[in-house]
Design brief:
single chain, alpha/beta, Glutaredoxin, five-stranded mixed beta sheet, 17% strand
């Protein structure tokens, strides 16, 4: 029952003030759990994936424990994509960890992203309109947002069927990296609500 309630509560539509497809992606600078500072503007010239992350969320856990998310991260970071996982959980809420503990959680989950960024005030998450974990965004080499939404089309998939889903992120990256227009640029995000500061 809890999972169903979480799912229903976290599939709301984003507001009109959110990052829009075909527009420049909002720039930001956030600290990483590796002690480095990450400036989105400095990544122009590269494809960038933003993944909203909460390891306490069962939807996120499913994508990591099945190897689905780590495999996708590995596949595309090896092709030069910068994959930034952003944690907008506020202190004291589900999914919030200090850097060292976050790195330990990520290692246990097999994460293969470029970096994990911390957004405890939730400013970047709200700027993008991130409402679920996971909530996925893709930015092209020109700094333009070309995809936002869910990772795939199977919010209630079992662990066994997760890899059989239509993965929107993989499809969008493949199309964009081949110079083609992204055929599905938006989809309905699903997962747990982002645990923003109240």
């Amino acid at each position: 029952m809890l999972a169903v309630l979480v799912f229903i509560g976290a599939t709301q539509q984003s507001s009109s003030d959110d990052a829009e497809i075909g527009e420049p992606a909002p720039v930001f600078t956030l600290p990483g759990t590796d002690g480095e500072s990450y400036d989105l503007e400095s990544l122009q010239g590269e494809f960038v994936v933003l993944e909203w992350l909460n390891f306490g969320c069962p939807y996120v856990e499913r994508h990591y424990r099945t190897g689905n998310m780590p495999a996708l991260q590995k596949e595309f970071t090896e092709k030069g994509v910068k994959w930034l996982s952003i944690v907008s959980s506020a202190p004291g809420t589900q999914g919030y960890y200090e850097s060292d503990e976050m790195n330990e959680q990520n290692e246990m989950m097999g994460g293969m992203q470029s970096a994990i960024l911390l957004d405890p005030e939730g400013d970047v998450g709200k700027m993008y309109g991130a409402i679920t974990t996971p909530h996925m965004y893709i930015i092209d080499k020109g700094g333009v947002l070309i995809y936002k939404g869910g990772i795939d089309d199977q919010p209630r998939a079992s662990y066994e069927k997760t890899k059989l889903a239509n993965n929107y992120v993989r499809a969008a990256l493949e199309e964009a990296m081949n110079g083609d227009e992204v055929s599905v640029a938006t989809s309905r995000p699903y997962g747990c609500s982002v645990k923003y500061k109240k």
